[in-house]
Design brief:
Layout (H helix, E strand, L loop, with lengths): L11 H14 L1 E3 L15 E3 L2 H15 L14 E4 L4 E11 L4 E7 L4 E5 L5 E3 L12
Antiparallel strand pairs: 1-2, 3-4, 3-7, 4-5, 5-6
Amino acid sequence: MATNKEKKMLTREECEKACMYLLKHCYETDAPALDDGEEGKTYTFTPSGFLECEIFKNLIEEHFNHKPLQFKEIKKYTWIWDNKYKNYIRVDLPFIDEINNRKIIKFKTIDFNGYCKFEENRFYSVTIPTIEGEDKC
């Protein structure tokens, strides 16, 4: 595992392996421990934490399988990924041009303001983490 100074992104394989490890090691029994040495006694073990592992599996799926945004999912003042130009953009206003019947996004980048036409499979959501101790992105 990387130290705090050497943070790296986890791979899908690492996340799935950790989830399977947890699932394999989360078993419980309703029987008392074999303190008195009763031999031949059998116990029924049932999985514990199965639902939690399913939640982690869904989270892994969402994280590694990014789905393109639909126009209705693009919200004002959010950051999204423009896969056509390989750039992050901040949405100022998504709107429909009634005259030309086109879906338009007014946006900003670090060094450019503009408009672009919405295209299927072009825009993706972005999660921007909050950095502890920092009050600005």
